[in-house]
Specification:
The protein has eleven helices and no strands. With 240 residues, it is an all-alpha fold. The protein has one domain. The longest helix is centred in the C-terminal third of the chain and has 24 residues. The chain is globular and about 40 Å long.
Length: 240
Amino acid sequence: MNVEPEIILAAVAIMAVASCVQGSIGFGCGLLAIPLFALLDPDLVPGPIFVGNAALTTSTALRERQDIDWSSVSWATAGRLPGTIVGSLVLARATDTSLQLLVAIVILAAVALSVGPLKVPTNSSTLLGAGGFSGFSSTSVGFGGPPMALLLQHRPGPQFRSTMGAYFTVGLVMVVPGIALAGRLGLDELLVGAALVPGAFAGFAASGPLRRHVDARSLAPIVLAGATVAAIALLVRVFG
């Protein structure tokens, strides 16, 4: 793994912006950052960005921990294990090109899921299913927010943000071994990921005052549009 210093600096800046968005509205870091990271250097996905994102989700969960819905976290985490195993197997066999293609496909699927007319009830069955898909995408490409966001989107802001953060923080015990076993989270990935942590913390800090004034429903379409453009750019690179 050999990521150029200028690439790392660009990745830190992207991480800061994406972390500010997620800290403000509860999701969006992976949707925005991962396709851009894959464009910059496929080695940034999924190991390094997962390290930076772990710092962000843990901070989010702790900031509003009194609002966490632990029942939803528990059911979704139970469904996460099989998805994590499948994601690890896929990641272990992925080349840089196939990983870029997978990132683009998962991003576009997540956007379609987020903007579609599908109304999904929140119960134990749907939480298990969302956990499974989230475990797969978290391990294979580094993010798994949209399935859970779809189920929790009507919750109050503090509960939405803290529950999403808690879910991803608890899921670290599954996803970290999965990425490591796939050969994508060694010492080099950890060091590059550590360089992203200041960006994650900076974005999180900036989101503190913003979250009281940002309308998640107004900002979400912009996040989804940006993710779509980046995913299409990845497809152009792969097939161009």
